[in-house]
Write a structure and sequence with these properties.
alpha/beta, Arc Repressor Mutant, subunit A, D-Maltodextrin-Binding Protein, domain 2, 3 domains, nine-stranded mixed beta sheet
Length: 331
């Protein structure tokens, strides 16, 4: 008779090892017992024995053998997301434990969208590390719903983002930096030297980079395109990766509708051009999502430094009341 989920769980807790998870994940990634053994410092026989042991634990075939190696079964592919989550948790746990030992609990876990990382964090991190070298910042990137999942799991102390549609219980949002959508192109684009403000309808029929479905910029571009007489020409690339977007805009005669904060440093450096537009395209400001209670000292220091940096530049229109400039901070 097949084991129930409860029996399988108890069996894994009693007889499973973290190394088993690593072997399973690397076998899927590398598709070879030999390469997996080499990658994680085991013998081929140890990897083969581990795989056989796991298949007995789960009572399932996890891999199909073929001439060039192994391939995961459908059952293994279904298990893989849970295994990856376990490995990610172990990795984060090791990072946090190391940080606590080396930095005496003075660390802050930060989650940021790409726009917030460029608009809020990059301008202040060098100042923060110079002023508070004892504080360790653990920074990861996530967008939209993924941010809320990380908050719900209690894995973050501060989130730099746009205000979510629904705030998690026990958290508050402080707007810090106004933002808007702008049309970007490379310096060699035919429109790059235009000084007259352009209306969006003048950009119809052009080649455009499109963001992922559901992103702010993609939704707005789709809305604008409904009023165009000529259809836009989608460039055959869909991404939100800043480095890829920036390089594509420099190398190809394409346009992109993006938050001003997204590639602001490339525009400031002259690597990209923000076209002058007759109609502003405002979007929600960037800011900080913070727990109402229980903030660590390290979290408060970073939040205060971000408020102060935005306030000093005069860029804030979001109403960050009581912002303190960086010069007022005490190490």
């Amino acid at each position: 008779m097949s084991a129930s989920a409860t029996v399988l769980l108890n069996r894994l807790l009693a007889r499973g090892k973290f190394r088993h998870i690593q072997v399973l994940q690397r076998l899927v990634e590398l598709g070879s017992v030999q390469r997996t053994a080499s990658a994680i410092g085991l013998t081929q026989s140890s990897v083969t024995q581990t795989l056989a042991y796991l298949e007995r634990l789960f009572e399932l075939p996890l891999f199909e053998r073929h001439a060039r190696g192994v391939r995961p079964t459908a059952a293994c592919r279904q298990l893989l997301p849970a295994m990856r989550q376990l490995m990610a948790g172990l990795t984060q746990g090791a990072e946090l434990a190391s940080g606590n030992r080396l930095h005496a609990n003075q660390q802050v876990r930060v989650l940021a969208s790409v726009s917030a990382a460029h608009g809020l964090l990059l301008p202040v991190l060098h100042l923060f590390h110079a002023r508070y070298p004892q504080v360790r910042v653990l920074l990861v990137e996530a967008e939209g719903p993924d941010q809320l999942q990380v908050v719900a799991r209690g894995e973050v102390d501060l989130v730099a983002c746009r205000r979510p549609a629904i705030l998690p219980a026990g958290w508050t949002f402080e707007p810090l930096l106004d933002d808007e959508l702008v049309v970007l192109c490379g310096p060699r684009h035919p429109l790059a030297r235009r000084r007259r403000a352009l209306r969006m309808v003048e950009l119809e029929g052009r080649s455009w980079l499109q963001g992922p479905v559901g992103s702010i910029a993609r939704v707005r571009l789709d809305e604008l395109a409904t009023g165009f007489v000529q259809d836009i020409e989608p460039f055959p690339l869909v991404t939100r990766m800043p480095a890829v977007l920036s390089d594509t805009l420099r190398q190809h005669p394409v346009l992109a509708l993006l938050p001003r904060s997204y590639l602001r440093h490339q525009v400031d450096a002259g690597e990209l051009v923000a076209l002058p537009l007759a109609e502003r395209q405002p979007i929600d400001p960037l800011g900080l999502m913070l727990p109402i209670d229980g903030r660590s000292d390290a979290c408060e220091l970073l939040a205060q430094c971000m408020r102060g940096s935005v306030g000093q530049t005069g860029a804030s229109r979001g109403g960050a009341a009581g912002a303190v400039g960086p010069k007022a901070l005490k190490p």
